[in-house]
Design goal:
The termini are far apart. It is built from 14 helices and six strands. It has helices spanning 41-46, 52-69, 80-84, 88-97, 107-119, 126-129, 139-149, 154-158, 160-170, 180-186, 210-229, 250-264, 283-289, 306-321, and strands at residues 74-78, 102-106, 191-194, 241-245, 273-278, 299-303. It is an alpha/beta fold. The chain has a six-stranded parallel beta sheet with strand order 3-2-1-4-5-6, with helices on both faces. 43% of the residues are buried. It has a single domain, classed as 3-Layer(aba) Sandwich (Deoxyhypusine Synthase), CATH 3.40.910.10. The chain is globular. Strand 4, helix 12 (250-264) and strand 5 (273-278) form a beta-alpha-beta unit.
């Protein structure tokens, strides 16, 4: 005879209930539709299943459109990978349409944006150029940033992002049509660049003044705080939306501090919504973008490749915003 610890449970003693007494997470009404070949985007969008990522994407689109109808800011905070996978034209188009109102970039995003605008190319193979000391040693990029930092108002009035966008346009950059910084300057959007000194290739160049770089980026942080202050809305009304796209550390931290500043100054951010779009789940976007700053249910995360999600997001926004 088996000892008591090894006696099998008698399953005949279990209680059961009717399925009608159980709450369910899946129902046929939420299943994917099957749009036919040649279907419109609207039909395809409507056919998405109503679960998980598709639900979060719909919620993000609705939040952005609600914010714009309420004339609240919608910010895209962009990691460098967004530029490196060819999505700059999407951000430029959303700025032009007014579906996003402002952008925040880390230092690497600004570098890639400038190089793409000036030269039509960017991004080196680090493993190759690091070995022989060529990594980060391109002179033209550093010269351009040095020229922008030498502008008289960059640390007192304009900030780094606006100075770069202005200079790209005044220099007639051959590919400025694909520049996020140039587009923001053209359309009157705030473009802030948030630098972590020592993390970007231009920081090793002696002609790039670290003091002015830090001061200009510090001014950009205060501009970003002002944008977040404007995300406040009357209670019960839609607030602004902060979209973190591909930044794992710097821009989530910037957002958290900007929210702290706005609330300290008395701005009601209860209507604030936040979106995180990235290829993998990261700690800081989860905590500092869609977690701590917003109320429960007001943070939306969609995981996937930027080169897939951003075209999808853009198309959904322009289709859903049409009269």
């Amino acid at each position: 005879m088996n000892p008591p610890s090894r006696q099998p449970v008698d399953l005949s003693r279990l209680k059961t209930w009717s399925i009608g007494q159980r709450a369910h997470q899946v129902a046929v009404e939420g299943l994917a539709g099957l749009p036919p070949r040649g279907a419109s985007f609207g039909d395809w969008w409507a056919a998405l299943p109503h679960f998980l990522g598709a639900t979060q994407l719909r919620a993000a689109v609705e939040a952005i459109l609600a914010a714009r109808r309420a004339e609240r800011p919608v910010v895209m905070a962009l990691g460098a990978h967004v530029v490196k996978v060819g999505c700059s034209p999407i951000v430029v188009d959303l700025l032009r349409r007014g579906l996003i109102t402002d952008v925040a970039l880390n230092g690497a995003t600004a570098i890639h944006d400038v190089e793409l605008a000036l030269f039509g190319e960017t991004s080196e193979e680090v493993s190759d150029t690091l070995r022989d000391g060529r990594f980060g040693m391109v002179r033209e990029t550093a010269e351009f940033f040095a020229e922008a930092l030498a502008l008289p108002d960059v640390v007192t009035k304009t900030g780094l992002g606006a100075a770069l966008g202005d200079l790209l346009r005044r220099r007639g950059a051959p590919h400025a049509a694909h520049s996020i910084l140039a587009a923001a300057h053209e359309h009157g959007a705030a473009a802030t660049v948030h630098v972590a000194l020592g993390t970007d290739t231009i920081h090793v160049h002696p002609n790039v003044d670290a003091g002015r770089l830090g001061a200009a980026s510090g001014l950009d942080f205060r501009i970003a705080c002002a944008v977040v202050c404007r995300m406040a809305a009357p209670r019960g009304k839609p607030g602004g939306v902060w979209c973190n796209v591909g930044s794992a550390v710097v821009l989530p931290e910037v957002f958290l501090k900007a929210v702290a500043v706005a609330r300290n100054l008395g701005h009601d951010l209860d209507g604030l919504r936040a979106v995180n779009l990235d290829m993998t789940r990261q700690y800081r976007p989860g905590q500092n973008v869609i977690g701590r700053p917003v109320a429960a249910g007001c943070g939306h995360e969609i995981i996937g490749h930027h080169e897939l999600l951003l075209p999808l997001l853009r198309q959904a926004l322009i289709e859903q915003s049409a009269p």
